[in-house]
Amino acid sequence: MRTLQEVIIKPLVMTEKGEILKENQGTYLFKVALAATKPEIKEAVEKLFKVGVTNVNTSIVRGKVTRMGRRMGKRPNWKKAMVTLRDGDSIEFFEGV
């Protein structure tokens, strides 16, 4: 079993889409471990930030193929979680940004 800090890698705070979702729907974006499941993400957010979670959506962001000189390389894949909080709940970490 993974610890809470292994499930949630970092919050995604500087995206325009994330700001719109936060203001309109109460949805917050996180970068999470590739192997993390929706129940693990829900539990981690509830315990770390002491809020209620109503919905968790995830998507895998595919890494881009890029050139490094003559050679082709690939950035790693990563998983994004969109977490919707209960009405009235918010995460203070995102409020100051």
Protein architecture, described:
With 97 residues, the chain is an alpha+beta fold. The protein has one domain (4-88): Alpha-Beta Plaits. Helices cover 31% and strands 36% of the residues. A hairpin with a 2-residue loop joins strand 4 (65-68) and strand 5 (71-74).
List keywords for this structure.
97 residues; alpha+beta; Alpha-Beta Plaits; 4-stranded antiparallel sheet; two-stranded antiparallel sheet; 4 helices; 6 strands
SSE map:
Layout: H1 4-7, E1 8-11, H2 16-25, E2 27-32, H3 38-49, E3 53-61, E4 65-68, E5 71-74, E6 78-85, H4 92-95
Antiparallel strand pairs: 1-2, 2-6, 3-6, 4-5
Question: Nutshell version of this structure?
Answer:
With 97 residues, the chain is of the alpha+beta class.
The low-pLDDT segments are none
Total number of domains: 1
Query: What proportion of the residues is helical, as a percent range?
Result: 25-40%
What is the makeup of the main sheet? 4 strands, antiparallel
Number of helices: 4
**How much β-strand is present in the residues?**
35-45%
In the CATH hierarchy, the third-tier topology is known as Alpha-Beta Plaits
What is the approximate shape? globular
Mean pLDDT: 90
Distance between the termini: 32 Å
**What's the β-strand tally?**
6
By CATH, the architecture is named 2-Layer Sandwich
Strand order of the largest sheet: 1-2-6-3
Radius of gyration: 15 Å
